[in-house]
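My current task is to audit a protein record that another person submitted. Thanks in advance; the entry in question is below:
***
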Amino acid sequence: MLVVGVVGSPRKDGLTNKLVSEALAGAQSMGATIKKIYLIDYEIEPWTPEHTKAPEELNKIMREADGYIIGAPVYYLDINGLTKDFLDTVDLGNSNGKPGFGITIAGGTGKGLVLAIKSIYYFFFCKNIRALEPLPVSRFNFEKALKKANELGRKLAEEAKMKKPFKSLEERIRYFSSIKYMNMDMVDEILLLAEQLLKSSPKQEYKEEAMSYYKRAKELISKGEKNKAITYAVKAYELLYY
């Protein structure tokens, strides 16, 4: 049973690597053989009519995998170009029913942590990969996310013991529509970041006020007034951002 972890960041010693490594450690603790790939080590070109596939050495590793972990940094609310070029060109062979999960890490403001994860999960959908819960990460929840990465790695190893192929497009759509975070938009994402900041921000003198804005935003959303909720969601986030 082989679980492959893909580090999409050009920095080998960065946060993406730490998260993917922790997920692989979880998989290994459940008996899986693990292999970590740094995309920066390969000549991965954007898809063109002349370059339709990733390097065969990389394709071979991915075809042999029984489960996938794909980690990428967030650039401009999406995964970085290196990871996207990999997803556009990698040849997985028959991956129907193999498990996988994605990790995105948004440094700085944290924005894009959820929006970017969708790109990886759209890839999983198209490749018939039975995706686990995503792991969107910011610097505000990083330590907690490391523990979650290990947990998801263990779960992935268990799921990799037996492929569960999708039997129809309808089944696949129903499955992916139920995955956590997939229905979130930019407003939901800002509220998620505000929630993380409520737990981790050093600006505790603003916590009570930020909490009142956060609750008001949630209340408005529950009433179907998401456009009005934006004002309060942003206020909660900006009060606690550091």
Notes: Residues 142-159 form the longest helix (18 residues). The mean pLDDT is 97. The radius of gyration is 19 Å.
